[in-house]
Amino acid sequence: MGTPVSPDPTPDGIPATTTVTAAAAAATTVTAPAAAPGPVAGPAAERPPTGHDGRYLGRRRLYLRRFWRNRTAVAGVAILLLLVLFSAFGQLLTPYHFSDTDFSALTQAPGTEHLFGTNQGGNDVYASAAHGLQRSLVIAVSVSVLTVAVSAVVGAGAAYLGGRTEKATLALIHFLLIVPSFLVLALVSHKLAGDWRVLVLVLTVFGWMSTARVVWSVSTSLRERDYVLAAEFMGVHPLRIVLRHIVPNLGSLLIVNLTLGVVSTVLSESALSFLGFGVQTPDVSLGTMLADGAGTITSAPWLFAFPAALTVLLTVSMTFVGDGLRDALDPTSTTGAAGGRR
Amino acid sequence: MLRYVTRRAAGWFLVIAVATNATYFLASSFLDPRSNFKELRPVRTDEQVSRALAPYNLDPHEPLLHRWWDWLSGVVLRFDWGRSPVGVEVNGEIGHRSLVSAQLVIGATLLSVVVGVALAVHTASRQYGWRDRAAQALSMALFNVPVSVAALALVLLAIRLNEQAGWHFLYVAGERSPDVEGFWATLGDRAAHLVLPTLTLTLTGYVGHHLTQRSLLLDVIGSDFVRTARATGLTRAQAIRRHALRTALIPTAQSVAFSIPAVFTGAVLTETVFGWNGMGQYFVQTINKNDVHGTVATAAFAAALTAIGAILADITTVLLDPRVRVS
User: N or C: which end of chain B has fewer CB within 10 A?
Assistant: First the structure.
């Protein structure tokens, strides 16, 4: 069976994008056989895959090339990298800690002493921004990873098992999509929060449905594939079929959803924290900083401007990366293909 | 058609009922009205607290199922949604608030759909033209702006505009002016207050409809029936509007119901920013005050809004989709 971890590069794994050209689809599907097994879109492959003499590109190199050709996606990666660096090392560049209070400088405008100014309590906005961005990023990435994992297993499992399980799962998904989940989210996280790890858990529990629905609809066609049938005849356990034969073939879909999930989590985390139901006061996130700045928007606009700019930069860059990945991983897309070239 | 819609409406009613009851249990287990008494001095004994809460059906010593049954029979028989921990009737609170929020949410949803679909039709027929690219870029940018940021940015802009014009014509706080009398004056005043919050929700809400509708339209624009329509002498724009759009609208109509929870979330944020006394603000307030009944009523309100959107979507589907009309 080889290594079933490597995703199938056929177009079925990805929902049809707007730019489908049948010719390009046929051409890329034929000429993009799996050469290098391994996770998609991992770090850059340094060497061309052996044994092909440059006639075929390795899949990773192919994806990387297509991704690299997309200028907005590259800009997205650059901004994202800067933001990650800022969140990781930004606090080292300032003598202040985000919880330090400077009583000689309350609500001070940006200047040399405090780079981004200070808030009403005398906290340095620069230090808070670095810490808040880090907190928001960590929450967003972990929620997104967990959400994608849960929705992949649930969606693919429901599609594979079929019958009553499928019906019940779909009913549950639809119900949860309709229920005002934000209310429940606020209710639950208000009592348990303060700790961001609880927030991660709560956001995951109420965030997996829409991805699971997409995964389910794509998996319904995967379950009819011959290799699934072959695995069944070999007596492979259903759970194993789902995890090793169906889920890996959703690879590109899941990766795209992973990045877009980060965007939506940042948005809902900042909404919750803005209302005071998310991250709580001794801790700082972008949402709590926005809430801080909301009250003094005319008298101290910098309190609002810096977290707002960071939040928007983070979501915009993530969306660019997600769109770039979608175009790069989707063989039917012409955006990454640059006029028919691969 | 009537049978189809009634059947769907019954289904939605069931969903509201289940969601509301589930919220009751969740709220009862996560909100503890007793903690409201912790700050009081002299310190109240457990018994005193129970006695204070008992008349409002919030006594934690009473079994949860008993409380639930009392609450449920109150709602079903008298449409009485209970009382807050200090005895304020929930019905009195949600009466005017629900109207205020409903006009915000429904107005914003309708506007979002109209703007999104119109923009999609306009851009899809000019795929990769500069207007398409500009609209796409704008939508992508707006898609990424948190509602709170959008609302506050609009507040800043409105204040700036008011200063420039020297005339207070954009309202950034409250849902009405306190000193306006007369029917038409009140109506105009309400409408003027609605402008900015609705604009906030529309700007953040139309994006989804625009992007999905555009790609749905592009999928059908090349199909045979659109070409046939053009062959009968319709212009390209007419063919798209009368034939392509009709098919492509069905999934959008269905997705409206799923978009309403997001609009309601946005409404909670906008009401907080614009200082409206609506359901969103009430929701934040009730959670902070451990008001179980108020929270449940808000959840029921949000679920009801979703159901209204869903039923409207169902009716639209019936009008658009011949397959439903036949069956």
Answer: C
- CATH of segment(s) B92-288: 1.10.3720.10
A12/A63 same-domain check? no
Would the CB atoms of B149 and A17 count as touching at under 8 Å?
no
Backbone φ and ψ for B89, nearest 5 degrees, come out as -70, 130
ipTM over 0.85: no
Residue in chain A lying closest to B25 (CA): A184
User: Which residues of chain B form CATH 1.10.3720.10?
Assistant: 92-288
Give me the long-range contacts of B63-71 (CB less than 8 A, separation at least 24): B64/B25, B64/B28, B64/B29, B67/B28, B68/B21, B68/B24, B68/B25, B68/B28, B71/B24, B71/B293, B71/B296
Contact A184 B23 (CB under 8 A): yes
pLDDT tens track for B271-297: 888 888 888 888 888 888 888 888 888
Residues of B in contact with A301 (CB under 8 A): 156
Bridge-partner residues for B83, per DSSP? B89
Q: Which residue has 């809430």 as its token pair?
A: A291
A267 touches chain B (CB under 8 A): yes
DSSP letter string, A167-185: HHHHHHHHHHHHS-HHHHH
**The pLDDT of residue A31:** 36
Q: Determine contact, residues B30/A191, Cβ cutoff 8 Å.
A: yes
Chain B residue numbers touching A304 (CB-CB < 8 A): 152
Return the pLDDT at A334: 52
Name the closest residue on chain A to residue B32, using Cα atoms: A191
What are the residue ranges in chain B where pLDDT is below 70? 324-327
Q: How far apart are CA A5 and CA A7, in angstroms?
A: 6
Residue of chain B whose alpha carbon sits nearest to that of A269: B146
**Cα(A66)–Cα(A31) distance, rounded to whole angstroms?**
14
pLDDT digits (tens, 9 = 90+) for A162-189: 889 899 998 888 888 777 777 777 877 7
Residues A157 and A137 in one domain: yes
A216 and A308 part of one domain: yes
